[in-house]
């Protein structure tokens, strides 16, 4: 007389537990397979049918059922496998994670390896350290310089509220709001990323001389206009005064025609705060041009900063120029091209020959 077929009978509670095991992503795959075997057996599937469905042997199915009958839920997990003792534990990396987040320096896998060896006597390879950090959701990426710690938070909050009011006044047509800043371009642009064939290294050949810097002073009226001037070298106080006198003339004309004053938002650069410049403020205000100074170390509040970023990374990145004239022409071209894309007008101030 043949024995009855091997089968498991599950209670509703056991069925629910095994179902949750199957859906849990943190459970080992072998344990999840065993839970599925038990659930199928409980539904009346025979051993051979379960084995064919899961692509395993009938011996595996039978062992799983016998382990359940003998050990219950604990029979679904494997015993700890033999092997060498772990060379590190999570506590070793707690201090490393503090260093990565708090210390004002960068760490590569080599420096972390030395830290672990000298301070905790833990010897790990660089490759293993990188693997552990990736599991902890760390990425190898660029850092950036910051002056946030030098900011006056109270002053920034006050100035930010004032700037919000100016932007609101501009939105309803009470004032004309412009953002002023300077930036620079050199003959050897910093190289960056590019699409290149595999196994080929693209080289940007340097021109014979490094040359002088071409500086640009710009005034951006969002989505409307971009006024600018180019200078060989830096934008000094006398060049800045020339540009602001030109802007004051346009502000005076706007004041007479529309009654709008013009407010220029700028930082505290030395050319903006020099004594000879401050003496011009009253004259400019009579023409309808007012200055709004941003708090120190808060360049992110100046909306023109994004314009420089786009010009340098999207328009003129990775190019080498023979001389300053070619560079100046390229800067003018990219400014005009970006204005055409964004739909605003440009106006360039040309210095008298003795100042250019």
UniProtKB/TrEMBL annotation:
Among Gene3D superfamilies, the record links this protein to: Ribonuclease H-like superfamily/Ribonuclease H, Winged helix-like DNA-binding domain superfamily/Winged helix DNA-binding domain
InterPro entries in the record:
Homeodomain-like_sf, RNaseH_sf, Tc1-like_DDE_dom, Transpos_IS630-like, WH-like_DNA-bd_sf
Tagged with keyword Isomerase: no
- GO MF term list: nucleic acid binding
Its keywords, alphabetically, are: Plasmid
All copies of the Tc1-like transposase DDE domain together span 179-326
Q: Which NCBIfam families match?
A: transpos_IS630
Name listed for the protein in its UniProt record: Tc1-like transposase DDE domain-containing protein
